[in-house]
Amino acid sequence: MRAIRRTAVAASIAIAAAALPSAPATAYPTKPIRFVVTFAPGGGTDIIARALGQKFHEWLGQPVVVDNRAGANGNIGTDLVAKSQSDGYTILLTTNAPIAINPHLYKKLPFDPLTDVAPITMVASLPFVLVTHPSIPVKSVRELIALAKAKPASLTYGSSGTGGGAHLSGEMLKNVANIEITHVPYKGGGPALIAVRGGEVNFMFISILTVTPFLQQKVLRPIAVTSAKRSKALPDVPAMAELRELKGFETDLWYGMFAPAKTDPKILDTLARTTRKALSLQEFQERFGSTGAELLGNSPAEFARLIKADYEKWKPVVKSSGATAY
Question: Residue 188 above 80 pLDDT?
Answer without folding.
Answer: no
